[in-house]
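Hi all, a correction to my earlier message: I attached the wrong file for Uma2 family endonuclease. Here's the right sequence:
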Amino acid sequence: MEMTAVDERRMTELFENLEVPEGVTIELLRGEIVMMAGPDLVHNRIVRSVALQLPSDRWEWLMTQDIDILSEQSEPVPDLVVLGSDAGPESGRLLPSEVVTMLVEVVSKNSVDRDYGIKRSIYAAGKVPAYLIIDPIVAHCVLLTEPVGGGDEADYTVQRITKFGDPVPLDLLGFELDTSEFKTLPGVRPHRRP
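and the right structure:
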């Protein structure tokens, strides 16, 4: 069933006025509202490690920041948002995807399909230059660059997989990400993504 423009607008309004319990993340992904429970310690420590490694003279990082991807009826909340230190607006709830250099998602047990699937497509449609998926289930990082296309057809043309322990070359940001401290999630069944 196709959603009409009215339904989509109503969905966005509903989304923006929802009262969300403490510790729950809520995202709008192509008109669908998705809720996630609070993340695992493993997840949060990986996010912290990435943030601390970013060269702070050139890059700003944000957490729990809603991204506005206008063309997409989407307001995702990536685990980490990286932008040039003078790139973003001064204020506002939403950060336009055009000013973002890299988005980072750390995979959790319930986010595998979203992180590798719809978010890959949404972030490419939003022309985000780099999307880094850090996966503590299968102990690898997937760096996606060079977004092309729009809507459901949008994707990244370059994909580079790096095992935990090896450095991830983040050329766009001018440094290599050290993954040697990244831990894995115990007792989660491995998957076959990307």
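Sorry for the mix-up. DSSP finds four helices and twelve strands in the chain.
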